[in-house]
Amino acid sequence: xxxxxxxxxxxxxxxxxxxxxxxxxxxxxxxxxxxxxxxxxxxxxxxxxxxxxxxxxxxxxxxxxxxxxxxxxxxxxxxxxxxxxxxxxxxxxxxxxxxxxxxxxxxxxxxxxxxxxxxxxxxxxxxxxxxxxxxxxxxxxxxxxxxxxxxxxxxx
Length: 156
Known about the structure:
By secondary structure, the protein is mainly alpha-helical. 42% of the residues lie in helices and 5% in strands. The protein contains four helices and two strands; from the N terminus they run E-E-H-H-H-H. The chain is extended.
């Protein structure tokens, strides 16, 4: 099984099969992550992307396994089984990842918001910009005028 040549911005990975001997010196998990990126059509990425993906994966798997172990201990089992793992996955996903709100709720909010008419547009010439305090183009500083003080000049 050869993963081929995987390259990214600053990353070039050349694998030599499943023996685990990689000329790039990257761990096998990093090669798998780069393979996932390649399969998703990502061909250029910075090197720290792989480290971030590996860190997230390690943290998530560790959290799931810790949760599965505590579920198994609570049930009086000596080993983690598939039911413990499935329940742990669903509990961690429910706690860690937030899904979108229900469609009906979003439709209700949109209906409520759209019932209010928009304010009338003022008759002006030129560009219509928000008030200056909300505008990025406005000054966000004040110039403080300082009178020059009379200081003794040191002879050079």
